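Ops channel
N.P.: pipeline sanity check, posting one input/output pair.
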Protein backbone atom coordinates (compact mmCIF):
# COMPACT_ATOMS: atom_id res chain seq x y z
CA UNK A 1 0.00 0.00 0.00
CA UNK A 2 1.07 3.57 -0.62
CA UNK A 3 1.09 6.22 2.06
CA UNK A 4 -2.09 7.73 0.63
CA UNK A 5 -3.89 4.37 0.65
CA UNK A 6 -3.03 3.95 4.32
CA UNK A 7 -3.69 7.52 5.47
CA UNK A 8 -7.19 7.96 3.99
CA UNK A 9 -8.91 5.28 6.10
CA UNK A 10 -6.81 6.29 9.08
CA UNK A 11 -8.07 9.86 8.89
CA UNK A 12 -11.66 8.61 8.94
CA UNK A 13 -10.96 7.07 12.34
CA UNK A 14 -9.38 10.18 13.85
CA UNK A 15 -5.72 9.30 13.30
CA UNK A 16 -3.21 10.35 10.66
CA UNK A 17 0.05 8.82 9.51
CA UNK A 18 3.36 10.43 10.42
CA UNK A 19 4.21 10.76 6.72
CA UNK A 20 1.14 12.95 6.24
CA UNK A 21 1.91 15.02 9.31
CA UNK A 22 5.36 15.75 7.87
CA UNK A 23 3.87 17.28 4.73
CA UNK A 24 4.45 21.07 4.53
CA UNK A 25 0.74 22.00 4.74
CA UNK A 26 0.23 19.88 7.88
CA UNK A 27 3.39 21.19 9.52
CA UNK A 28 2.41 24.79 8.75
CA UNK A 29 -0.93 24.18 10.48
CA UNK A 30 0.62 22.46 13.50
CA UNK A 31 3.32 25.09 13.97
CA UNK A 32 1.01 28.11 13.65
CA UNK A 33 1.40 30.68 16.46
CA UNK A 34 -0.53 29.75 19.62
CA UNK A 35 -3.26 32.14 20.75
CA UNK A 36 -1.60 32.93 24.08
CA UNK A 37 -3.49 34.77 26.82
CA UNK A 38 -1.28 37.04 29.01
CA UNK A 39 -1.97 37.03 32.74
CA UNK A 40 -0.67 40.58 33.12
CA UNK A 41 2.00 39.37 35.59
CA UNK A 42 5.06 40.36 33.57
CA UNK A 43 7.46 37.67 34.78
CA UNK A 44 4.87 34.87 34.62
CA UNK A 45 4.06 35.75 31.02
CA UNK A 46 7.75 35.90 30.14
CA UNK A 47 8.39 32.44 31.63
CA UNK A 48 5.35 31.05 29.78
CA UNK A 49 6.53 32.51 26.44
CA UNK A 50 3.73 35.08 26.36
CA UNK A 51 0.94 33.77 28.56
CA UNK A 52 -1.53 30.93 29.10
CA UNK A 53 -2.52 28.70 26.20
CA UNK A 54 -5.88 27.38 24.99
CA UNK A 55 -6.84 23.94 26.36
CA UNK A 56 -4.61 24.37 29.42
CA UNK A 57 -5.52 23.76 33.05
CA UNK A 58 -3.60 26.01 35.44
CA UNK A 59 -3.90 25.16 39.14
CA UNK A 60 -2.95 27.73 41.79
CA UNK A 61 -2.33 26.23 45.23
CA UNK A 62 -1.51 27.74 48.59
CA UNK A 63 -2.49 28.02 52.23
CA UNK A 64 -5.59 30.00 53.22
CA UNK A 65 -5.01 33.74 52.93
CA UNK A 66 -1.84 33.50 50.84
CA UNK A 67 -3.41 35.05 47.73
CA UNK A 68 -4.79 32.24 45.54
CA UNK A 69 -8.13 33.94 44.96
CA UNK A 70 -6.44 37.33 44.67
CA UNK A 71 -4.26 35.97 41.88
CA UNK A 72 -7.13 34.22 40.07
CA UNK A 73 -9.46 37.23 40.15
CA UNK A 74 -6.68 39.63 39.16
CA UNK A 75 -5.76 37.40 36.21
CA UNK A 76 -9.44 37.32 35.22
CA UNK A 77 -9.55 41.13 35.32
CA UNK A 78 -6.30 41.44 33.35
CA UNK A 79 -7.47 38.99 30.69
CA UNK A 80 -10.81 40.78 30.30
CA UNK A 81 -9.00 44.11 30.10
CA UNK A 82 -6.94 42.66 27.24
CA UNK A 83 -10.10 41.70 25.33
CA UNK A 84 -10.67 38.11 26.50
CA UNK A 85 -14.08 36.77 27.54
CA UNK A 86 -13.96 35.32 31.06
CA UNK A 87 -16.34 33.23 33.16
CA UNK A 88 -15.47 34.00 36.79
CA UNK A 89 -16.82 31.27 39.05
CA UNK A 90 -16.18 32.25 42.68
CA UNK A 91 -17.97 29.75 44.92
CA UNK A 92 -17.19 31.39 48.25
CA UNK A 93 -18.30 34.95 47.44
CA UNK A 94 -21.49 36.64 46.28
CA UNK A 95 -21.52 38.59 43.06
CA UNK A 96 -21.44 41.82 45.11
CA UNK A 97 -18.18 40.76 46.78
CA UNK A 98 -16.69 39.85 43.40
CA UNK A 99 -17.68 43.26 42.00
CA UNK A 100 -16.14 44.96 45.02
CA UNK A 101 -12.92 42.99 44.52
CA UNK A 102 -12.77 44.03 40.86
CA UNK A 103 -13.42 47.65 41.84
CA UNK A 104 -10.60 47.49 44.38
CA UNK A 105 -8.20 46.17 41.72
CA UNK A 106 -9.06 49.13 39.49
CA UNK A 107 -8.56 51.45 42.44
CA UNK A 108 -5.12 49.95 43.02
CA UNK A 109 -4.20 50.65 39.41
CA UNK A 110 -4.82 54.36 40.00
CA UNK A 111 -2.77 55.04 43.16
CA UNK A 112 0.85 54.65 44.21
CA UNK A 113 0.20 53.70 47.86
CA UNK A 114 -2.77 52.37 49.87
CA UNK A 115 -2.87 55.61 51.89
CA UNK A 116 -4.08 57.48 48.79
CA UNK A 117 -7.16 55.27 48.51
CA UNK A 118 -8.04 54.92 52.22
CA UNK A 119 -11.22 56.98 51.99
CA UNK A 120 -12.34 55.24 48.79
CA UNK A 121 -11.78 51.81 50.31
CA UNK A 122 -13.84 52.87 53.31
CA UNK A 123 -16.74 53.53 50.94
CA UNK A 124 -16.33 50.07 49.41
CA UNK A 125 -16.53 48.59 52.91
CA UNK A 126 -19.85 50.42 53.34
CA UNK A 127 -21.04 48.95 50.04
CA UNK A 128 -20.16 45.42 51.14
CA UNK A 129 -21.88 45.86 54.51
CA UNK A 130 -25.07 47.19 52.90
CA UNK A 131 -24.68 50.75 54.18
CA UNK A 132 -24.31 52.28 50.71
CA UNK A 133 -25.57 51.45 47.22
CA UNK A 134 -23.32 50.88 44.22
CA UNK A 135 -24.30 54.26 42.78
CA UNK A 136 -23.61 56.07 46.05
CA UNK A 137 -20.26 54.33 46.32
CA UNK A 138 -18.89 55.05 42.86
CA UNK A 139 -20.08 58.65 42.94
CA UNK A 140 -18.62 59.38 46.36
CA UNK A 141 -15.23 60.51 45.05
CA UNK A 142 -13.27 60.99 41.84
CA UNK A 143 -11.03 57.95 42.36
CA UNK A 144 -13.97 55.59 42.72
CA UNK A 145 -15.76 57.09 39.73
CA UNK A 146 -12.64 56.60 37.59
CA UNK A 147 -12.18 53.04 38.87
CA UNK A 148 -15.83 52.24 38.13
CA UNK A 149 -15.54 53.69 34.61
CA UNK A 150 -12.53 51.43 33.96
CA UNK A 151 -14.51 48.43 35.20
CA UNK A 152 -17.51 49.28 33.03
CA UNK A 153 -15.33 49.28 29.91
CA UNK A 154 -14.55 45.58 30.39
CA UNK A 155 -17.83 44.54 32.04
CA UNK A 156 -19.31 42.90 28.94
CA UNK A 157 -16.36 40.50 28.87
CA UNK A 158 -16.72 39.16 32.43
CA UNK A 159 -19.50 36.77 33.48
CA UNK A 160 -19.87 36.02 37.21
CA UNK A 161 -21.97 33.39 38.96
CA UNK A 162 -25.08 34.44 40.88
CA UNK A 163 -26.64 32.31 43.63
CA UNK A 164 -28.26 29.91 41.15
CA UNK A 165 -25.01 29.58 39.23
CA UNK A 166 -23.04 28.73 42.35
CA UNK A 167 -25.49 25.90 43.02
CA UNK A 168 -25.58 24.70 39.44
CA UNK A 169 -22.56 22.42 39.56
CA UNK A 170 -20.10 21.72 36.78
CA UNK A 171 -22.78 21.33 34.12
CA UNK A 172 -23.68 24.98 34.63
CA UNK A 173 -20.04 26.00 34.14
CA UNK A 174 -19.83 24.06 30.89
CA UNK A 175 -23.03 25.69 29.63
CA UNK A 176 -21.72 29.15 30.55
CA UNK A 177 -18.40 28.60 28.77
CA UNK A 178 -19.98 27.12 25.66
CA UNK A 179 -22.86 29.60 25.38
CA UNK A 180 -20.65 32.71 25.34
CA UNK A 181 -17.60 31.12 23.73
CA UNK A 182 -15.46 32.04 26.73
CA UNK A 183 -11.70 32.22 26.30
CA UNK A 184 -11.09 31.66 30.01
CA UNK A 185 -12.84 29.94 32.91
CA UNK A 186 -11.72 30.79 36.45
CA UNK A 187 -12.81 28.33 39.18
CA UNK A 188 -12.30 29.38 42.79
CA UNK A 189 -11.97 26.70 44.06
CA UNK A 190 -11.92 23.09 42.81
CA UNK A 191 -13.23 21.65 46.08
CA UNK A 192 -16.44 23.71 45.86
CA UNK A 193 -17.75 22.49 42.49
CA UNK A 194 -20.94 20.54 43.24
CA UNK A 195 -21.32 17.04 41.91
CA UNK A 196 -17.60 16.41 41.33
CA UNK A 197 -16.09 15.15 44.59
CA UNK A 198 -12.46 14.38 43.76
CA UNK A 199 -13.00 14.67 40.01
CA UNK A 200 -13.04 18.44 39.48
CA UNK A 201 -9.50 18.59 38.06
CA UNK A 202 -10.31 15.89 35.52
CA UNK A 203 -13.54 17.63 34.49
CA UNK A 204 -11.80 21.02 34.18
CA UNK A 205 -9.08 19.59 31.94
CA UNK A 206 -11.65 17.84 29.74
CA UNK A 207 -13.63 21.08 29.43
CA UNK A 208 -10.48 22.98 28.44
CA UNK A 209 -9.63 20.47 25.71
CA UNK A 210 -13.18 20.21 24.36
CA UNK A 211 -13.88 23.96 24.24
CA UNK A 212 -10.43 25.46 23.69
CA UNK A 213 -10.81 27.56 26.83
CA UNK A 214 -8.04 28.17 29.33
CA UNK A 215 -9.11 26.99 32.79
CA UNK A 216 -7.57 28.62 35.86
CA UNK A 217 -8.48 26.92 39.14
CA UNK A 218 -7.48 27.39 42.76
CA UNK A 219 -6.92 24.38 45.00
CA UNK A 220 -7.27 23.73 48.73
CA UNK A 221 -4.40 22.62 50.94
CA UNK A 222 -4.53 19.23 52.66
CA UNK A 223 -3.84 18.75 56.37
CA UNK A 224 -0.28 17.63 55.61
CA UNK A 225 0.20 20.68 53.38
CA UNK A 226 -0.95 23.02 56.14
CA UNK A 227 1.56 21.43 58.53
CA UNK A 228 4.49 21.58 56.09
CA UNK A 229 7.19 24.24 56.27
CA UNK A 230 6.99 24.85 52.51
CA UNK A 231 3.89 23.88 50.56
CA UNK A 232 4.52 21.66 47.57
CA UNK A 233 2.13 20.05 45.10
CA UNK A 234 1.88 16.91 47.21
CA UNK A 235 0.37 19.06 49.96
CA UNK A 236 -2.73 20.01 47.95
CA UNK A 237 -6.10 18.35 48.42
CA UNK A 238 -6.59 15.77 45.65
CA UNK A 239 -2.89 16.16 44.85
CA UNK A 240 -2.55 13.10 42.59
CA UNK A 241 -5.31 14.13 40.18
CA UNK A 242 -4.08 17.72 40.08
CA UNK A 243 -0.53 16.55 39.37
CA UNK A 244 -1.73 14.39 36.47
CA UNK A 245 -4.33 16.72 34.95
CA UNK A 246 -2.80 20.18 35.30
CA UNK A 247 -0.60 21.67 32.61
CA UNK A 248 0.82 24.30 34.96
CA UNK A 249 0.95 23.94 38.74
CA UNK A 250 1.69 27.16 40.62
CA UNK A 251 2.37 27.08 44.37
CA UNK A 252 2.27 30.16 46.62
CA UNK A 253 4.19 30.48 49.89
CA UNK A 254 5.00 33.32 52.29
CA UNK A 255 8.57 34.41 51.66
CA UNK A 256 9.41 34.84 55.33
CA UNK A 257 8.39 31.21 56.02
CA UNK A 258 10.53 29.56 53.35
CA UNK A 259 13.65 31.71 53.06
CA UNK A 260 16.73 30.19 54.65
CA UNK A 261 17.44 31.62 58.09
CA UNK A 262 20.91 32.52 56.82
CA UNK A 263 19.26 35.53 55.16
CA UNK A 264 17.02 36.67 57.98
CA UNK A 265 18.26 35.57 61.40
CA UNK A 266 20.83 38.35 61.76
CA UNK A 267 19.27 41.04 59.58
CA UNK A 268 15.97 42.23 61.03
CA UNK A 269 15.50 44.97 58.42
CA UNK A 270 15.84 42.48 55.58
CA UNK A 271 13.58 40.01 57.34
CA UNK A 272 10.91 42.70 57.72
CA UNK A 273 10.95 43.29 53.95
CA UNK A 274 10.05 39.61 53.42
CA UNK A 275 6.62 40.12 55.02
CA UNK A 276 5.26 41.83 51.92
CA UNK A 277 6.46 39.15 49.50
CA UNK A 278 4.85 35.94 48.27
CA UNK A 279 6.92 33.30 46.48
CA UNK A 280 5.33 31.88 43.34
CA UNK A 281 6.83 28.49 42.37
CA UNK A 282 6.15 26.77 39.06
CA UNK A 283 6.17 23.14 40.11
CA UNK A 284 4.91 21.77 36.80
CA UNK A 285 4.97 23.26 33.31
CA UNK A 286 4.14 21.04 30.35
CA UNK A 287 5.26 23.72 27.89
CA UNK A 288 8.61 24.61 29.39
CA UNK A 289 10.85 24.89 32.41
CA UNK A 290 9.56 24.05 35.89
CA UNK A 291 11.17 24.43 39.30
CA UNK A 292 11.33 28.23 39.06
CA UNK A 293 10.77 30.52 42.06
CA UNK A 294 9.87 34.18 41.75
CA UNK A 295 8.31 36.77 44.06
CA UNK A 296 5.53 39.33 43.93
CA UNK A 297 4.67 42.09 46.38
CA UNK A 298 1.29 42.03 48.10
CA UNK A 299 -1.14 44.91 47.67
CA UNK A 300 -4.01 43.19 49.46
CA UNK A 301 -5.56 46.52 50.40
CA UNK A 302 -6.54 46.54 46.72
CA UNK A 303 -6.96 42.74 46.36
CA UNK A 304 -4.00 42.47 44.01
CA UNK A 305 -0.30 41.83 43.61
CA UNK A 306 2.15 44.26 42.05
CA UNK A 307 2.39 42.82 38.53
CA UNK A 308 6.13 43.46 38.24
CA UNK A 309 7.71 40.58 40.12
CA UNK A 310 11.26 39.30 40.21
CA UNK A 311 13.31 36.15 40.66
CA UNK A 312 14.10 35.20 44.26
CA UNK A 313 17.72 36.17 45.06
CA UNK A 314 17.85 34.29 48.38
CA UNK A 315 18.13 30.59 49.09
CA UNK A 316 14.88 28.89 50.01
CA UNK A 317 14.66 26.15 52.60
CA UNK A 318 14.54 23.32 50.03
CA UNK A 319 17.81 24.58 48.56
CA UNK A 320 19.97 24.05 51.65
CA UNK A 321 21.56 20.79 52.69
CA UNK A 322 20.80 21.04 56.42
CA UNK A 323 17.21 20.99 57.64
CA UNK A 324 16.37 24.30 59.37
Amino acid sequence: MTDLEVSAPLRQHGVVSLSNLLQPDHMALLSAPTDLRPTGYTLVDSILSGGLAPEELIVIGGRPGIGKSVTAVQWARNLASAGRTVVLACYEHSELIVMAQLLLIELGELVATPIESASSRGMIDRLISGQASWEETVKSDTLLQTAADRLVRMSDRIVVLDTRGRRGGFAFLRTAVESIGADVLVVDHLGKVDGLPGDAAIACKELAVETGATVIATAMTSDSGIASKRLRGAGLADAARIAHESDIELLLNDKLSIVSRNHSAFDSVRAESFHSKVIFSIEKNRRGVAGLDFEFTRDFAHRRFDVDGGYVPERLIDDVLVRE
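N.P.: looks fine end to end. The chain has three domains: 1-32, 37-91+161-324, 95-156.
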